[in-house]
């Protein structure tokens, strides 16, 4: 086995993180909100360190419905301000990350005479709220046009439908793009580095202690402001400061199933505006597969690796069968994944599907800044608001936000000559395609190549089989069984790149196989 030829980026980040300095901002959490906050701070010229306990977007931020959207159902709930803000951010994100975000048509099929005009009116308001950043105007389509766009729609009693447009993206790839953007602007981020305690001086939170999971060593870092952006785990960090603090969150679980593209072969997604439990359901083409979801199940406790409940999968498949023909069955599910929503507590008796998706910032008596709630689409605005509060509290020099017009790392117009899985790298794709193994597939049922594993280790802080197969590549979500079969080769490449031994390889394959088994629908 050859040792790695270059200093891997995590080793460099660990060296920087443990340097003797006081950071302007310490951000705990490497999901959408934490990365957005860190990029916001770094682009203003503040020194920033981000610590992530597992891997970037390990939790909720890699388990979304893959939509950059205003939220049609939030409009139905009357939350116009959230929808307007989200639609504005949707437009900015498409401009700033064109390699990751693209327009997608969504068809609301009408099976009753009143459905098309009813939903059409609401979606015209959706268009208006987007203003000059609107993607394309919604419009009525007749029965023949609906079937042309979505041939597998159930034909009986179909009257037509409404076609509207929203954005689609790859959530974990956006997280990695934000990581690279942060590094481009002088920020430091470290994964596999859980915070194990907060440092307080005179009752003020002035830093944190973290453990490097690769060495087991603990380190202390100091900062002028500390941001808790750990998603569904914010209450755990808040309890590090005050064990008696009241919980902020009422977490709920959303489940998705992934099936083959043949169940939705047209060029549009399908949106079911009202399911039996009052939610919306999406069937969305994604990386030549189809993502169907989601559910909303209140959970009494959080888990770093949530699992779909049998009744959630049953609900998704049953609802899909009301609209698609042929409809996917359990045997057709390539992967099933669950994510937890960090919903901020409301009054007693409020169900989780009606809780606000607005973000919330709270500052404790000791100065710990907690950011939670929100959604991927508004990550940039969440970061801007948080850094404004942090800068004021820490007495940092006031500087204007630049992120509304900031092109993210690799930003480039999509190259239609490249396969879909190369698009997400933007300008980095050419560098990856020059690496060994660029034409060697990892698995016949997956689009990825060996070169992408090398790039993940050399440029994107990938440390484990899961880091690569779940988030740098999306193999775990596209086809869990195929990802398990690809794991030994992925681990062998990682071992070569990172200088690991045979015992590490064997442990990695076993760990990944056990984890990925939870994504297989038996």
TrEMBL record:
Residue ranges occupied by any Alpha-glycerophosphate oxidase C-terminal domain in the UniProt entry: 416-503
GO terms (BP aspect): glycerol metabolic process; glycerol-3-phosphate catabolic process
Descriptive protein name: FAD-dependent oxidoreductase
Highest taxon listed in the record's lineage: Bacteria
Keyword field: FAD, Flavoprotein, Glycerol metabolism, Oxidoreductase
CC cofactor: FAD
FAD dependent oxidoreductase domain: residues covered: 24-378
Gene3D superfamilies listed in its UniProt record: Alpha-glycerophosphate oxidase, cap domain, D-Amino Acid Oxidase, subunit A, domain 2, FAD/NAD(P)-binding domain
Matching InterPro entries: DAO_C, DAO_C_sf, FAD-dep_OxRdtase, FAD/NAD-bd_sf, G3P_DH_FAD-dep
Phylogenetic classification of the source organism: Bacteria, Thermotogati, Deinococcota, Deinococci, Deinococcales
Family statement: Belongs to the FAD-dependent glycerol-3-phosphate dehydrogenase family.
Gene Ontology terms for molecular function: glycerol-3-phosphate dehydrogenase (quinone) activity
The keyword Translocase is annotated on this UniProt entry: no
Chain segments annotated as coiled-coil in the UniProt record: none
């Amino acid at each position: 086995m050859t040792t790695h030829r270059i200093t891997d980026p995590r080793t460099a980040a660990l060296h920087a993180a443990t340097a003797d300095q006081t950071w302007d901002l310490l951000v705990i959490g490497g999901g959408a909100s934490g990365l957005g906050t860190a990029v916001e701070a770094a682009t203003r010229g503040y020194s920033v360190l981000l610590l992530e306990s597992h891997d970037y977007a390990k939790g909720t931020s890699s388990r979304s419905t893959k939509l950059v959207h205003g939220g049609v159902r939030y409009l139905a709930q009357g939350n116009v301000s959230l929808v307007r803000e989200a639609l504005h951010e949707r437009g900015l994100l498409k401009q700033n990350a064109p390699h990751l975000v693209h327009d997608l048509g969504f068809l609301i099929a009408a099976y009753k005479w009143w459905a098309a005009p009813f939903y059409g009116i609401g979606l015209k308001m959706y268009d208006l709220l987007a203003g000059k950043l609107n993607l394309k105007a919604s419009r009525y389509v007749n029965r023949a046009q609906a079937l042309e766009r979505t041939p597998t729609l159930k034909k009986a009693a179909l009257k037509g439908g409404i076609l509207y447009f929203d954005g689609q993206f790859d959530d974990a790839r956006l997280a990695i793009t934000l990581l690279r953007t942060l590094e481009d602007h002088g920020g430091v981020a470290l994964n596999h580095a859980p915070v194990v305690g907060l440092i307080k001086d005179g009752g003020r939170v002035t830093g944190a202690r973290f453990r490097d999971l690769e060495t087991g060593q603990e380190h202390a870092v100091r900062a002028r402001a500390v941001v808790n952006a750990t998603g569904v785990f914010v209450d755990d960090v808040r309890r590090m400061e005050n064990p008696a603090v009241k919980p902020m969150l009422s977490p709920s679980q959303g489940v998705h199933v992934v099936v083959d593209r043949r169940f939705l072969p047209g060029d549009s997604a399908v949106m079911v505006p009202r399911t039996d439990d009052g939610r919306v359901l999406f069937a969305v083409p994604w990386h030549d597969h189809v993502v169907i979801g989601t559910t909303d199940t209140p959970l009494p406790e959080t888990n770093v690796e949530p699992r779909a409940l049998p009744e959630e999968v049953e609900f998704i498949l049953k609802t899909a069968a009301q609209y698609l023909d042929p409809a996917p069955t359990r045997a057709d599910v390539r992967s099933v994944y669950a994510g937890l929503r960090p919903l901020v507590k409301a009054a007693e008796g409020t169900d989780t599907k009606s809780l606000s998706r607005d973000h919330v910032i709270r500052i404790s008596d000791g100065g710990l800044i907690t950011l939670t709630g929100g959604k991927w689409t508004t990550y940039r605005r969440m970061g801007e608001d948080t850094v404004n509060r942090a800068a004021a509290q820490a007495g940092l020099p006031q500087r204007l936000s630049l992120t509304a017009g900031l092109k993210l790392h690799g930003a480039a117009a999509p190259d239609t000559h490249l396969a879909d899985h190369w698009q997400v790298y933007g300008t980095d794709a050419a560098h990856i395609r020059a690496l060994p193994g660029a034409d060697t597939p990892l698995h016949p049922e997956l689009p990825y190549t060996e070169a992408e594993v090398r790039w993940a280790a050399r440029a994107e802080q990938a440390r484990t089989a899961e880091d690569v197969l779940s988030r740098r590549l999306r193999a775990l979500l596209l086809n869990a069984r195929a990802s398990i079969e690809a794991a030994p080769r992925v681990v062998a490449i990682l071992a070569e790149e990172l200088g690991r031994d045979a015992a590490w390889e064997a442990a990695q394959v076993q760990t990944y196989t056990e984890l990925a088994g939870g994504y297989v629908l038996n």
